[in-house]
């Protein structure tokens, strides 16, 4: 079963050199505060003194420590390199090929040197790991040793060193496949233990946490019962167990006390002080327990790991296909432009097979803009904005001159309607700009793979966008001119005999509406008769004129009734003002209802449909043909900064994933 751990070791070797991968490997992550005895625990398990020591942060890079119970083949490989048969335990670093370390003081020096290379010499930290493989006759086990938790920066350390260490630890312990080995000192309150706080945060149930209690030999004898409760799992809620250890003190280290002597003293310490539970604690028990836990954990996580590798491989292959360097540049550019045009048009027309269910896109967004932007703004314009009763009175009197104003003053009405319709021009023309902007933005809603491929080449991307921008700009002025001209036509030429306008008048007057409801068939028949082919045009106008006079007459009576009759000249003017105010409002609303459909339809016809028809041709003429004429320039397919690095990184990760697959398949064959 130790082969399972060695298989995971191979995966650690593979992914240690790969940046920013998401492969969650089953491994033991060692977490503890500075001076918690974390390094001493690892050295006791290995049986060698090899870790850097000193004040402040000593471990400044993740150390992937792989203990391997060596085989005859391992011994043979070592002898081939050293030709030294006296070596019984040795170490190798992944960053130094074909080099064997049998002096563990040199191992310590190499860790320090490599740490300075990766993290710098200013006591900063790095997330780049050091992989150390220790060959021993004891057992196979693997750990990830992380920097000790600290609160204050020391010397030249960054001010945010605590935050950096926390982020590095969290990066490892948050992985569901990580087993957390939390180192806790016996002489501090477990409730304040930083390692247990982190473990509880990312493993609330304690299902993948094991606690190691250090410094049992320096506590007060009066707290012995509390320590028994601690070691028996009554205080710290972790499910993988709590194991106490006694490691070398600084005095032992200064006196060159061997690790074998320390292990013997540890056994005697537990037998003397905790006889009831002595067989459940100590470094040997810890090693066997960790090995059992890791093997069981690997067995459980292998199916998930296999699925994770499979998904990663599929994703990488797809991404690399997009990042692939084109074999034939001309064909590549032409096909990409064709696909971009197709995806753009399908996005506008709603023919995309991958239509989103989360957000509006393309043509649907344009329709939504019509409702939310244009229609609301357009219909919110006050028909009588900036038109007071006094202004209406002046218009009526000034356009009558020395004559008395008629029942309907057409000259005054034309002036007022023209003035009010002017307020519809700005929202109508601004809507053209809104649709134009939305049509341009739709390019960012095309198929994401195509968009990624386009953005990979800055010059090509700019050319495509410029082509679309120019195409939209080409029609913009003409459409605005057309819409403005259409509104101006309504400003200059009023048609007060239009049936829709007359119905607006009918609905605006209580007297008229009441009469209309009582004799609506007569109105409908008259209007239908007026539009039939049995009358000449003069007869038709005559019929409609009669209807108009009848409606105006009823409106006049309605207003007159509300004012109490024509008692004086002032009342007569008031009737005229109110009557023409109603005419102006109704005609404005009649024209606005017409424009509410006309403006979007005009834009759809002259801008949207135009772009859909011409975009493909424009791409060929303005993008593809210049590339064909001057392919040697190379600028069109020059990749943006970072793409080559991204491709290399993904290729590197794919190689690592394939190696990982091979290792897992070897496990399945065993």
From TrEMBL:
Domain GED as annotated: residue spans: 577-670
This protein's GO CC annotations: cytoplasm; membrane; microtubule
Source domain of life: Eukaryota
CDD domains named in the record: DLP_1 (cd08771)
Dynamin-type G domain location: 22-303
The keyword GTP-binding appears for this protein: yes
Keyword tags: GTP-binding, Nucleotide-binding
GO terms assigned for molecular function: GTP binding; GTPase activity; microtubule binding
PROSITE patterns tied to this protein: G_DYNAMIN_1, G_DYNAMIN_2, GED
Annotated family: Belongs to the TRAFAC class dynamin-like GTPase superfamily. Dynamin/Fzo/YdjA family.
Protein name, as recorded: Dynamin GTPase
Annotated organism of origin: Macrosiphum euphorbiae
Taxonomic lineage of the native organism: Eukaryota, Metazoa, Ecdysozoa, Arthropoda, Hexapoda
């Amino acid at each position: 079963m130790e082969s399972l751990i060695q298989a995971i070791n191979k995966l650690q070797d593979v992914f240690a050199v790969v940046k920013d991968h998401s492969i969650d490997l089953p491994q033991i992550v060692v977490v503890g505060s500075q001076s918690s005895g974390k390094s001493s625990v690892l050295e006791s398990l290995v049986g060698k003194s090899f870790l850097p020591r000193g004040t402040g942060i000593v471990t400044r890079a993740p150390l992937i420590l792989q203990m391997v119970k060596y085989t005859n083949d391992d011994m043979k490989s070592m002898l081939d390199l050293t030709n030294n048969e006296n070596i019984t335990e040795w170490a190798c670093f992944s960053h130094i090929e074909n080099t064997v370390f049998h002096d563990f003081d040199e191992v310590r020096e190499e860790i320090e040197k490599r740490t300075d290379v990766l993290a710098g010499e200013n006591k900063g930290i790095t997330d780049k790991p050091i992989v150390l493989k220790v060959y021993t006759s004891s057992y196979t086990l693997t750990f990830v040793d992380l920097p000790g938790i600290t609160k204050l920066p020391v010397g030249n350390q960054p001010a945010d060193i605590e935050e950096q260490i926390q982020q590095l630890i969290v990066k490892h312990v948050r992985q569901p496949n990580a087993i957390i080995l939390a180192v806790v000192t016996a002489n501090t309150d477990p409730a304040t233990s930083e390692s247990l706080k982190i473990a509880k945060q990312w493993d609330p149930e304690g299902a993948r946490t094991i606690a190691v209690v250090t410094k049992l030999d320096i506590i007060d004898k009066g707290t012995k019962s509390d320590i028994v409760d601690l070691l028996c799992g009554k205080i710290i809620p972790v499910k993988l167990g709590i194991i106490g250890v006694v490691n070398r003190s600084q005095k032992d280290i200064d006196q060159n006390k061997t690790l074998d002597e320390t292990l013997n003293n540890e056994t005697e310490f537990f037998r003397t002080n905790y006889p009831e539970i002595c067989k459940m604690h100590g470094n040997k028990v810890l090693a066997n327990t960790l090995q059992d836990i890791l093997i069981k954990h690997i067995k459980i996580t292998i199916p998930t790991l296999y699925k994770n590798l499979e998904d990663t491989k599929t994703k990488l292959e797809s991404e690399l296909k997009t990042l692939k360097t084109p074999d034939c540049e001309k064909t590549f550019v032409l096909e990409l432009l064709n696909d971009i045009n197709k995806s753009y048009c399908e996005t506008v027309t709603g023919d995309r097979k991958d239509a989103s269910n989360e957000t509006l896109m393309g043509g649907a967004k344009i329709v939504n803009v019509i409702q939310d932007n244009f229609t609301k703004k357009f219909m919110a314009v006050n028909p009588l904005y900036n038109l007071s009763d006094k202004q209406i009175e002046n218009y009526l009197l000034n356009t009558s001159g020395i004559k008395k104003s008629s029942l309907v003053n057409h000259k005054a009405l034309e002036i007022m309607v023209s003035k009010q319709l002017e307020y519809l021009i700005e929202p109508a023309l601004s809507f053209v700009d809104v649709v134009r902007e939305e049509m341009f933005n739709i390019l960012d809603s095309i198929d994401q793979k195509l968009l990624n491929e386009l953005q990979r080449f800055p010059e090509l991307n700019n050319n495509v966008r410029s082509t679309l921008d120019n195409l939209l700009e080409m029609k913009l002025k003409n459409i605005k001119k057309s819409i403005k001209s259409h509104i101006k036509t309504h400003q200059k030429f009023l048609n007060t005999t239009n049936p829709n306008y007359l119905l607006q008048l009918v609905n605006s007057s209580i007297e008229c509406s009441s009469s209309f409801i009582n004799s609506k068939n007569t109105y409908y028949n008259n209007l239908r008769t007026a539009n039939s082919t049995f009358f000449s045009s003069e007869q038709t106008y005559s019929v409609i004129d009669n209807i108009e006079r009848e409606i105006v007459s009823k409106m006049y009576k309605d207003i007159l009734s509300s004012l109490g009759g024509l008692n004086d000249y002032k009342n007569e003017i008031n009737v005229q003002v109110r009557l023409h105010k109603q005419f102006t409002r109704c005609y404005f609303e009649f024209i606005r209802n017409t424009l509410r459909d006309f403006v979007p339809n005009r834009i759809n016809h002259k801008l949207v449909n135009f772009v859909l028809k011409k975009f493909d041709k424009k791409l060929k003429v303005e993008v593809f043909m210049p590339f064909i004429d001057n392919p040697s320039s190379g600028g069109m397919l020059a990749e943006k900064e970072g793409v080559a690095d991204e491709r290399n990184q993904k290729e590197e990760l794919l190689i690592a994933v394939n190696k990982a697959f091979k290792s897992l398949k070897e496990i399945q064959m065993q």
